[in-house]
Amino acid sequence: MEFFSEKAVTAADKTFFQLRKEIVEGEIPSGSKLSETELSTKYSVSRAVIREAINRLESCHLVERKANVGARVVALTPEGLVELYQIREALEGMAARQAAKNMSDEEIADLTRLLTAHFQEVKTGDSYYQEAGDVDFHYRIILGSKNKHLIGMLTDGIYHLVRMYRVQLGMAGPRVTTAFDEHQHIVKAIANRDEELAELLMRRHIMYSKNNIEHKLVNKL
Amino acid sequence: MEFFSEKAVTAADKTFFQLRKEIVEGEIPSGSKLSETELSTKYSVSRAVIREAINRLESCHLVERKANVGARVVALTPEGLVELYQIREALEGMAARQAAKNMSDEEIADLTRLLTAHFQEVKTGDSYYQEAGDVDFHYRIILGSKNKHLIGMLTDGIYHLVRMYRVQLGMAGPRVTTAFDEHQHIVKAIANRDEELAELLMRRHIMYSKNNIEHKLVNKL
DNA sequence: TATGAATAAAGTGTCGACAATATAGCCGCT
DNA sequence: AGCGGCTATATTGTCGACACTTTATTCATA
Question: What is the DSSP secondary structure assignment for residue B10, as one 8-state letter?
């Protein structure tokens, strides 16, 4: 899943990536407390490193911190999920709009190829790669926006929280073929340089995805 | 300007607020380097406090950091401004949509009162309070969305960067009466619970504002 | 003179210890 | 027995020192 070119140069980086991974995958359960001393012994680093890692996790909205009290992993709630998807709808919609304007022809061709390759895998029915492919698709469009702030907010900011909801609610699942069709329509709109339609389709795509997840989630949280 | 209820409980808080203020207002010039040792002597706190403050400034996109090299205040560029306003358009548009859905009748009445009071000040021609009134208006709608993630991203995240552009480019200025009309239309849409229109009008409002600033900015950056 | 390696200087990254604050448990009081 | 205040403990916040990396300087060599 590391198609983000994130290389850990410092110890705080490594610890941050490790903690983020464990939180997203639920190894550190949501709602649990993050004790600085405990973590520093567990990872064999100083508390300063842990503190920096926790600060970064807070920036990703993966933990919440109170002064003089400590940090807790965020709780997963239906309201939080809805709020998150509203933000995705706004930001990724804008990303699709800008991608329709700013992606190069080669990049669009690449994206089309990705989609057909993806279609081959869909036929084999392997749902995990469906998940990865979906993330990859959205990631490319985000990059295609060429908006550095937008890219940062989505990839560094909220995408790991999205993954956290998906992983912990077990969201590898259906909606495969329908989502695939939606992806195709979006790419066509981008290829036609139709900014308005690209944004609209992306927003609908994310809204459908939200509704789908919401249904599943009723009896899980 | 402190209508955000941000109280500094810890030393790192105070340093962060102080540094943020100085960066936004240009006292620490954009593009300049932030030396940890230098700042720690200047503010009479330890480097650990400075480091935490700088980390938070990085989360706000006010400084950029490179491992083993240091942190610099972000450079103000025309491209950066455009990117920032694209994000505002997406997020505040969504905020207006959600505000039309979630604000209470009392809150809407309050907002209307704010607008008429604001109109009185516009007639006196004091442009500074126009600026404050504009920020206040947007802030209330953001809060009205009732989306915690959205509120956090806008108020903690990008709003200080928006202010930095405005302050350092000297953006107290015209567009007063037209902006006021736009505000009125937005409130009407919210009062009518017309989510679609509220979002559309807010997006247009921000787009106009962007175009206005872009024109002024040509010969400044 | 220009280039490159070796070295010195400065700055960031990391650490362990101390100080300040919040939480938990105990004791006395009503 | 229940409640409020106090003490003890544990955790976070802050500090100064050391280790490592980057950058600037110096010096030798082609």
Answer: S
